[in-house]
Amino acid sequence: MKSLIRGTLVPMAVLAAMTLGACATHPGNPNALWNIVSKQCVPQANDPSAHNACAYVDLAGGYAVLKDIRGVGQHLLIPTEKISGIDSPRLEQPGLPNYWRDAWEARVYVERSLHTSLPPEDIGLAINSASGRSQNQLHIHIDCMQPEVVAALSAQRASIGESWRELDVPLEGHRYRARLITDGTLRDTDPFALLVADTRARGESMADQTLLLTGTTLADGKPAFILLNDHVHGLDRGSAEELLDHDCHVRGR
């Protein structure tokens, strides 16, 4: 968490004024997120006296954390490099930062917005497919999990191993695959890399994929992750964001 201590939270009234006119998820402006990050957050990060539109900007790490105007705690991790999304060939190239690791560390901003800490299984990180998103800049949603999804994953936890398998029950009406990641800090594991290798083997397109990462605990008490994957088919638009709860009902449990 050391890299996040330097970040400062922007008062909600100020942030709302900065982002309302360029809604971060407005389908009519698919470049809104990129405009906010490239034209506001990054330049303001170079000016210590400026109020930054983002909650945190790590210029060396190549990402910014922005409070989404939707939800009580939802934040977005957005690269400061122009990357379209899960369909970008950049995800398959060497030297890409591990945005999932950075996004997991950035969950503290969700907790600060909620004024409470959350167990790892109540936090989720999601990225939508190319057809299931509204923005043409890669962004990872950081928010609370749907309580029903938390319960479903808990019930099936014993059957989730380190290879992909379809869950026994649908989540939000869709069939997801799941796998365990035992690298509890994501130091050596990038979920994008795991998906790229599997998608190639299955002959599918990365543009059609969606991912969600949530925390769990191993039998020995060590932290780990559950990675969920779905893809575009039929009426399923490949939007794992559906497993998140922007009203964050888990905080009241």
UniProtKB/TrEMBL annotation:
It is found in: Cell membrane. It is a single-pass membrane protein. Keywords: Cell membrane, Hydrolase, Lipid biosynthesis, Lipid metabolism, Membrane, Phospholipid biosynthesis, Phospholipid metabolism, Signal, Transmembrane, Transmembrane helix. Pfam families: CDH. One of its GO terms (biological process) is CDP-diacylglycerol catabolic process. Its EC number is 3.6.1.26. Pathway: Lipid metabolism; Phospholipid metabolism; CDP-diacylglycerol degradation; phosphatidate from CDP-diacylglycerol: step 1/1. Its main location: membrane. InterPro entries: CDP-diacylglyc_Pase, HIT-like_sf. GO terms for molecular function: CDP-diacylglycerol diphosphatase activity. PROSITE patterns: PROKAR_LIPOPROTEIN. Residues 1-24 form the signal peptide. It catalyses: a CDP-1,2-diacyl-sn-glycerol + H2O = a 1,2-diacyl-sn-glycero-3-phosphate + CMP + 2 H(+). The keyword Lipoprotein does not apply. One of its GO terms (cellular component) is plasma membrane. Belongs to the Cdh family. This is CDP-diacylglycerol pyrophosphatase. It comes from Pararobbsia alpina.
